[in-house]
Amino acid sequence: NASRLLGKTVLITGASAGIGAATAILFAKAGCNLILLARRADQLEKVAEAASAAHKSAAAQQGGQIAIVQLDVTDRAQVSALWSKVPQGLRNVDILVNNAGGAHGIDRVGDIQDKDIDTMFATNVLGLISLTQLLIKDFKARNAGHVINIGSIAGREPYVGGSVYCATKAAVHAFTSSLLREVVDTPIRVTEIQPGMVETEFSIIRYRGDKSAADKVYDGLQPLTAEDIAEEIAWAAARPPHVNIAEVFVLPANQA
Ligand code: NDP
């Protein structure tokens, strides 16, 4: 029931593109307030405008406040200083969507660049942990809240050339499962969404800007859209308080 989202405040990392941007627009439509985080401020502005238009067109009775914060999730000092950049009225976050991340290269183990290893672990794992640490303290103090982490099928079904990326997503899975058990006696909910192939900038980044190589990945199958994943995230968030969607695998119909 989407009305359960009315007036909720949702913090989304990696909100400047792809799944994060689509999620921002969907939550705005559902009557939520938003805090949108990413490194590209100009892109965040565009997403905020689209989210605001979606909120208006849905004529939602609540929500509609949007704060954007230019932030690199790998920078602990920036994460610690987050609240100083968020208006007072938006500091009681109800839902954290830990989405920022990506794959940098599709290389065999001997060929992976050190900087790509560092970027993937710093973003996909350490960044997600930093944001969770910041929010979970609040959630525990308020005895409420929902952490939604974006893992990947890659964390469960590793593939050749994806070793480090797959390892980061396996780490997201282990971290999320542990957190779920940590808060099991509280109303705090913890969800992991594990998508298969989604057509976003992800594939272009993975192939270091080579769009034709990036597109080839989708040969013979229809990839998911960012909106497909946003719907799963919003669906998990809109369950009644006694229901926790622990894990969701969502794959293109012709990906196994
Ligand atoms: P995109 O590349 O389209 O979006 C990635 C987002 O993460 C961007 O908004 C980017 O913003 C942000 N981001 C990257 N690094 C940082 C950083 N250091 N600090 C803050 N924000 C950052 O990819 P997707 O939307 O596809 O990916 C979103 C999530 O979904 C990722 O965790 C990815 O691993 C996961 N996923 C994607 C799949 C796919 O096939 N697309 C499949 C399974 C999982 P900016 O550059 O402005 O900082």
From TrEMBL:
One Gene Ontology molecular-function label: oxidoreductase activity, acting on the CH-OH group of donors, NAD or NADP as acceptor
Keyword set, alphabetical order: Membrane, Oxidoreductase, Transmembrane, Transmembrane helix
Pfam families documented for this protein: adh_short
InterPro entries: KR_dom, NAD(P)-bd_dom_sf, SDR_fam
Domain Ketoreductase: 8-201
Source species, domain of life: Eukaryota
SUPFAM superfamilies: NAD(P)-binding Rossmann-fold domains
Family per similarity comment: Belongs to the short-chain dehydrogenases/reductases (SDR) family.
Protein name from the UniProt record: NAD(P)-binding protein
Lineage, top ranks: Eukaryota, Fungi, Dikarya, Basidiomycota, Agaricomycotina
Bilayer-spanning residue ranges: 10-36
